[in-house]
Design a protein that fits this description.
Layout (H helix, E strand, L loop, with lengths): L1 H31 L39 E11 L4 E7 L6 E4 L1 E8 L2 E9 L5 E7 L2 E5 L7 E12 L2 E10 L8 E3 L1 H4 L3 E8 L10
Parallel strand pairs: 1-11, 2-10, 3-9
Antiparallel strand pairs: 1-2, 1-8, 3-10, 4-5, 5-6, 7-8, 8-9
């Protein structure tokens, strides 16, 4: 009887120990098991860096042209001045004439030191005569309709018109039939002078040679 009692107690205790161990094992299994919770995945956001490049617009710098010297505006008729003789005369400004011409009389060629010269006579506004001689620069022949070609001597003389003083070729010829003893041609005018035919005697010539 005692033996049965002890056996019952033994098996009861053993059962309790087994149940406890099982419970502990289940508890441990529950505790150690990682919870099946899905962690949020890390979001990788790639931000594109937008770089705005400044568009370079070409800048064209236009250089202002250098201002040219003002051209002299002359009338159809002007006074001219010959510095070597201190002679002031009336002149026609003729853009159609090639060479400047000067009224002269007693025109004669001669030789001086083996070179060809020409002597001639000028006349001032008072009618006074001025004798002059210069080396011959060249000789030109003027064609005339119904007449022989006219031989003319060309010399170099300084002539002032307005504020311009130039050493130019001058043709010596008798201009007594013309109203103006001097004709200013293109060899003086080109590139420097504009002519307003509606005007006359607009500027006084300088009295000195530049």
């Amino acid at each position: 009887m005692k033996k049965l009692f002890f056996n019952a107690i033994f098996f009861s205790a053993l059962t309790i120990i087994f149940i406890g161990c099982s419970a502990a094992s289940k508890t441990e299994q529950i505790d150690t098991k990682e919870p099946n919770i899905e962690e949020p995945k890390e979001k990788i956001i790639i931000k594109e860096k937008i770089v705005y490049k400044e568009k370079k617009v070409p800048v064209y710098i236009t250089k202002e042209p250098k201002q040219k010297d003002s051209k002299i505006i002359l009338g159809n008729y002007e006074y001219v001045y010959i510095p070597s003789e201190k002679l002031k005369l009336k002149a026609k400004i003729d853009t159609g004439a090639t060479t400047t011409s000067l009224h002269a009389i007693n025109i004669k060629a001669f030789e001086r030191d083996g070179k060809k010269w020409v002597k001639f006579t000028l006349e001032n506004e008072k009618g006074e005569l001025i004798n002059k001689a210069l080396p011959i620069s060249r000789i030109v022949y003027i064609k005339r309709h119904g007449a022989k070609n006219q031989k003319r001597y060309v010399v170099q003389m300084r002539i002032n018109v307005a504020n311009s003083s130039q050493l130019v070729d001058v043709t010596l010829t008798d201009r007594s039939k013309f109203s103006y003893p001097v004709l200013i041609g293109k060899n003086f005018l080109t590139g420097m002078v504009l002519v307003d035919v509606s005007k006359k005697f607009t500027q006084e010539p300088i009295k000195k040679a530049k």
